[in-house]
TrEMBL record:
Organism of provenance: Acetobacter oeni
MF term (GO), any: siderophore uptake transmembrane transporter activity
UniProt cross-references to PROSITE patterns, sorted A to Z: TONB_DEPENDENT_REC_3
Residues covered by the TonB-dependent receptor plug domain: 83-191
Keyword Ribonucleoprotein carried by entry: no
InterPro entries per record: Beta-barrel_TonB_sf, Plug_dom, Plug_dom_sf, TonB-dep_rcpt-like
Family: Belongs to the TonB-dependent receptor family.
Gene Ontology BP term (one): siderophore transmembrane transport
Keywords linked to the UniProt accession: Cell outer membrane, Membrane, Signal, Transmembrane, Transmembrane beta strand, Transport
Protein name: TonB-dependent receptor plug domain-containing protein
Its membrane topology: Multi-pass membrane protein
Lineage: Bacteria, Pseudomonadati, Pseudomonadota, Alphaproteobacteria, Acetobacterales
Pfam families listed in its UniProt record: Plug
Cellular compartments annotated: Cell outer membrane
GO cellular component: cell outer membrane
Amino acid sequence: MDLEITHEQKQAAGMRNETQPFTRLFKAAAVLLFRRRVLLSGVCLFTVGTQTGHAQSLDYSAFETLFGEPVTSSVTGKPQRASDLPTDIQIITSDQIVSSGAQSVPDVLRMVAEVDVRSYSTLGANISIRGNDAAGGSHTLVLVDGRQVYLDGYNYTDWGLLPASLRDIRQIEVVRGPNSALYGFNASGGVINIVTRDALHENKSYIHLNGGSLGNFGGEFVASHKFSDQFAAKLSLNGLEADEYTDARSRGTLPRTHALNASLDLRGQITPKIDWQLSGTIGKETSPFWVDVGTYVDIAPLSKSLEGKINADTSWGLVEFKAYENGFDSSVSDVISTQNLNIPIAFGYKLNTTDAQLSDTITLNNRNDLRLSVEYRYMDLTAQQSGVKMSNEYDMLAAGSAVWDYRILPQLTLTNAVRVDALYVPRMRNSGVPDASLSDSHHYMEPSFNSRLRYDAKKVGVFGLNVARGIQLPALFDFAPTQNFGPAAVLNNPALVPSTTINVGLNYSRKINPINANFSLSLFAQRTSNMLGTPFASNFSYDPPFTVTVRPENYGRVDDAGGEARLEGITTFGLNWDLSYAMSAVRDPDKASTINFQRQTPVNSVIGGFSYKIGKFELSSHARWQSHYQDVVARLTDLSIENMKIPGFVTLNARVAWHFDKRFLLSLSGDQLADPELRETAGLRIQRRLLGGLTAQF
């Protein structure tokens, strides 16, 4: 259903025009944002004319107030209530994020069923949905306000450089299973969309400071100011400095971690039916990085982005145009000791992504909605070793998609989405070896689809059937021409192809009134063909004394089946609680990779927790148990990869907070309370951490 609100409903929801004294601060910040590529906003503005219609941007706060539940437009492009979504989509609200006591987005996601979180360092983590991931890479697409932060060059997400302050996140949308037709390529495992607060609709400013064990000190600063009904701005800063876990020194990694991220969002309305947004972010990090062959290197990446977006509610539909440019510049420096040799690594790369998308969401009648979209992407990757340029590669992608939402009956809805991606990778030569042969060019045209049938049987519950085909592209680095990086030779593979995942799912949910709870159940089975690993975890051969040959490959077929059951509710005295169980059984019949995909995912996990407010105090705690799985670790003595068993473990977090004033909050959070040190991966042992925090709203 379309969600529309009248002027009277807006007043009932408490929507007011507020101003706060930060004018000079935002003028200074705006100058920094407009120094680069102001043209991007101009490109956005020329696409729109003035037409009739209704509110064109999604006011999450007002809709949530009106309907008493979260709202999202991520599934079909039109606003939908959480209760109308398939049960394989879970929305984590801002209240749940804060009450969890989590210090990062990976910490929040750890308490979501079928989300596998591996913490390799204070900032470094690998997150997958329903498994099938290699240790260092991911098949899970990550977005912030719809802009991709997932790094296609090496197929992973740098969680330490998220341009979002934790307490400024309005909600996190977790979509399980292949969703390439809705979100684009590289969403074959699932999608995590992080939605921050919109300064035009929600005015919230605060400062948060925390510190505690392991030399941890960090904070967030968000200043949001609505200058008028036509213009608002938000400045967000977040940073962290902490000691790495104690066994970092024995592994030769950085003993201390740093991260600093900043973002500026400018929002405005040209007319009541046309609004725009211009956003810029920058982030810097120094941290140990777990390479997917099973060892650490030290990294110091710099991340930058600029995005322009415009929405217009016109007579031919809700038109949205957005364009963004992401830049990621990283250097890796280390010395690997093996075979009585010290091998220096001085590897650097720059990844730039330019993306433009145009969509139109059309209400054909009261039973049919149609969303049409086109997308163009250009990405280039420049790599160098010891200051010498090794390769400069790029790819181009064009895609078209359509989403059709059809209400067959008031209680029966069919949603179909289809997308076709056309990828071109040209022939390339290793610039460090002028007479080297050219690599083969690649041309792919891959369709993806999602089809969902939802039936609301009222008191009996809601039933759903999902069928999907997802696409995972090889990392851009995998297309590189044959080249040498120190002792390693990386070979070009002309036969490399995208992997495809076919998924079938059954969903059921219902409200259990006697205990004021909601129950949901999802079952799935999927098959991934031409499985892809990650760039540095490919099968390799070792030629003594120290020559390693790496060749990116497809690894045949991998099957996965399982499901999630979740029960959440609230008691008569205000105690919020939840309990979930997830099972995922992976089968790797071909076993073509050194990495054991069949054992990479925990088969069972159980999550439970509660949050409770009593007067000025808040109490909360969450625990997760997961069964054993296998991680990989490098054996440098003979340059091989070993699959290491990680026994099952329990993660326990807790938080207590005190509102000693209307605008001030004191909190104490504990991470990993079940064990002083925990073997969670083949990397560093995760340690218990206690943090005190002070939050002030203004």
